[in-house]
């Protein structure tokens, strides 16, 4: 083996020793032993004390016609302006339904446009978005909703082979006797008052159609929405996540 800067031939044992020496020297110079879980230091950038929705609104105002999101499986493309319209319309409708700050709203969805819109709408209203695995079965869904006391739930008719709406209906048979004009009353899920269904199954009893909420919210005055958003600060809780629950019940 020829080492350029030494200009001499090394035998195999010498080569191994030389490489080990270089490796040891390299590691000792740039890889100090970690004694902390994180490094705390002053940044050259100032802390932006803003909520998620405030940052999104500023970007939408600055780049309204720029592409914001592409959801290939849904065949949807959004500019910042069009996505902000959907977020504001959703938030305005949820506000009219009576959602207060710190209410928990369960999102039982995969990675869809409605999931992302709910993230920003929740931030505007000061709601706590509760992310629930869309593959959960009935008992897991019941546990997660009751664990943190969710007041709202958004779900799809199905996710691949999982019949989400049918699973929920088995858990809440009172859905048949409920209507959109009044709050849900469920024995299994006592804190749950409103259910939002994505997709085109708008005729399902006891649930709010996501598309209709967007349509209705676009006609509402956003004065109260702006007042609510102004009352939410960056220190307000914004989301709850669950562990997978492989060794027991999911942990929030």
From TrEMBL:
Ranges annotated as biased composition (Polar residues): 243-252
InterPro entries found in the cross-reference section: AMP-binding_CS, AMP-dep_synth/lig_dom, ANL_N_sf
Pfam short name (any one): AMP-binding
Residue ranges of every copy of the AMP-dependent synthetase/ligase domain listed in the record: 56-252
Domain of life: Eukaryota
Annotated stretches, region: Disordered: 224-252
Protein name per its UniProtKB record: AMP-dependent synthetase/ligase domain-containing protein
Native species: Adineta steineri
